[in-house]
Design a protein that fits this description.
Layout lengths: L1 H11 L7 H20 L24 H6 L6 H27 L6 H16 L8 H13 L9 H5 L23 H14 L3 H26 L4 H10 L4 H8 L5 H13 L5 H12 L6 H10 L4 H22 L20 H11 L2 H26 L16 H19 L9 H7 L6 H16 L10 H34 L6 H10 L30
Helix pairs in contact: 2-4, 4-10, 4-20, 5-9, 5-10, 6-8, 6-9, 8-9, 9-10, 9-12, 12-13, 13-15, 14-18, 16-17, 17-18, 17-21, 18-19, 20-21
């Protein structure tokens, strides 16, 4: 152990480990690897979105007939390692860049944001990779355009009976699964189909727009929330729009995570202005995906010392939820329940489920695995709440532990991270909901853990599609990478959080602690100081900013 610590200290002293420019180069190289692989056209990792049929809209790629003439598509033994290397380089670049920022490097914010925007738009201009979710979004929108209910009818029920120019391009394994998305997500899928017409190619383009534009808006709001703190603004850009793990997971896959989160982040922007408007936005977020309930809980906790604001928040949230679920899509209320019981490869759960399934019936083993996940959510959430740093979000007029926005940002980080690392079903693009609020906290160990988790999941799901790969790639390579290495990394992340709590602030929810917390609920925010009994976590402080390097 001493040898490892000595090696780590020697590595920490190397200048290149805090070279922000090198970090940026690696991030760009990572994104270029993704863009080039997608630009080469359909392959085992790049979706076939159907013919463009003369459309000038993206996604742009080498036409299939041209590709055959020059030896395309590239074999899986080329494109898969290229993406693995690209993701890994991007992760290293992210670490180097944020270490440089922590050490005092301050590049120009608008140049960083511009670079991130360019990389995101370029990534969204080529076909999506590795996950066929976007094709299912298109399929659910197609069903709606035909007057069918995507919550009760599956795409396969239609295309197995008759040819459909959009549904025919969907892929296994979700063709027989009805929609699990909220009414606003369904509306976006319908709109993409209305704009894209009979072409899956054009429908996918509009879905990509609905992914990348909200992502850019999210990042812009986070930078705005950090206004006045150059270090925090730099961190916000780096952890959102210039984060190669998020560009890969969210934008390259055209996932609707950004569309989900953009309303919640807008709610954060209005927290110091209007609790009612904040409620409207968190209600809209819940109408896309129910996982945004964690942000709603965080907002209630942030306003807990002012019951008028809690009521205003609740009223604001109920309005869009009641209208969208109650009037337009009541069946969507039960859709998300279909996701319960799923176990994803690469999470912590397969190892636990495998052990339980040896001695218990499959259904009981799955149920117990799910119960472990829910129990772990509370345990890990408590541990994170004890060790994450307290620092006021810029603009606070109260101490950090009394400022509603600061409380909400920190609580959202705690809840979302706890859910991500304990859920039996977890994927890399889900991490967006934790990266965004984390950007407004001081540097801490969670930065490293999210990079480790996100890198492992991203690499594991390069082979996420169930079509096109050889048996060796799926049954041997992908199994080792996803079900052994990646699942092991998720256990390491859980163990690291427990160790963090155990060694830094091992505070338990004792009877006295609970009584003090209940009493604390009745205190107002008017100049009240934080409870002195809560020890401050030991933090590595921001270093003084040196001369800016551009």
């Amino acid at each position: 152990m001493n040898a490892i610590d000595a090696w780590r200290r020697r590595l920490d002293d190397q200048p290149w480990t805090k070279d922000g420019r090198l970090g940026f180069r690696l991030i760009v190289l990572s994104c270029l690897a993704t863009i080039v692989v997608a630009l080469l056209g359909p392959s085992t990792v790049t979706l076939n979105v159907g013919p463009a049929d003369g459309s000038l809209l993206p996604p742009w790629y080498v036409p299939v007939e041209w590709g055959r003439a020059i030896g395309l598509p590239l074999p899986e033994w080329v494109v898969v390692p290229v993406l693995w290397i690209g993701i890994s380089l991007g992760s290293v670049g992210l670490v180097l860049a944020w270490r440089a920022v922590t050490a005092g490097w301050r590049p120009r914010i608008h140049l960083m944001f511009g670079l991130g925007t360019a990389l995101n738009l370029a990534t969204a201009a080529v076909p999506p990779l590795t996950s066929a979710d976007v094709l299912m979004y298109a399929a659910y929108g197609r069903l709606q355009r035909q007057g069918l209910d995507p919550y009760s009818i599956t795409p396969a029920e239609i295309f197995r009976q008759t040819f459909d120019p959009v549904l025919v391009w969907t892929e296994r394994p979700w063709q027989d699964t009805p929609s699990v998305y909220g009414p606003l997500a369904s509306a976006s899928q319908w709109l993409a189909n209305a704009l894209g017409g009979e072409s899956m190619h054009d429908v996918v383009f509009w879905l990509q727009v609905m992914s990348v534009v909200p992502f850019i808006v999210i990042c812009a709001v986070m930078v705005k929330l950090a206004h006045g703190d150059a270090a925090l603004q730099t961190r916000s850009v780096l952890f959102t729009i210039l984060n190669p793990l998020l560009i890969w997971a969210v934008v390259a896959g055209a996932h609707n995570e950004a569309l989900t989160l953009v309303f919640a982040i807008a709610g954060l922007f209005f927290m110091r202005r209007s609790a009612f408007v904040t409620g409207i936005f968190i209600g809209l977020a819940g109408a896309v995906k129910v996982s945004l309930v964690f942000y709603g809980i965080a907002m209630v906790w942030g306003y807990r010392h002012d019951w008028r604001k809690v009521v205003a928040l609740g009223v604001g949230a109920v309005i869009p939820l009641a209208v969208l679920y109650g009037v337009f899509a009541p069946q969507a209320l039960f859709a998300a329940g279909r996701n319960t019981g799923y176990i994803s490869g690469g999470s912590w759960a397969p190892w636990a489920y495998g052990v339980l399934a040896w001695v218990l019936p499959d259904s009981l083993a799955r149920s117990l695995t799910g119960m472990l996940g829910w129990g772990g959510l509370f345990v890990i959430g408590w541990m994170l709440s004890r060790v994450l740093p307290w620092s006021p979000v810029p603009g606070a007029t109260l101490p950090a532990e009394r400022d509603p926005l600061t409380i909400t940002v920190r609580t959202a980080t705690v809840l979302c991270t706890a859910w991500l690392v304990t859920s039996p079903y977890t994927l890399s693009w889900y991490d967006l909901i934790a990266w965004a609020p984390l950007a407004l906290l001081l540097p801490n160990r969670l930065d490293w853990l999210l990079v480790l988790r996100g890198t492992a999941l991203s690499v594991a799901y390069v082979t996420g599609r169930t079509v096109g790969f050889s048996p060796v790639m799926i049954d041997v390579i992908a199994f080792i990478v996803r079900d052994i290495v990646c699942s092991g990394v998720q256990w390491v992340v859980l163990a690291a959080i427990v160790h963090w709590f155990w060694t830094q602030n091992r505070e338990w929810p004792t009877r006295a602690f609970v009584i003090g917390g209940v009493r604390d609920l009745f205190l107002t925010t008017d100049g009240a100081a934080p409870r002195a009994s809560v020890p401050e976590p030991v933090l590595r402080p921001w270093r003084r900013a040196g001369r800016s390097r551009h």
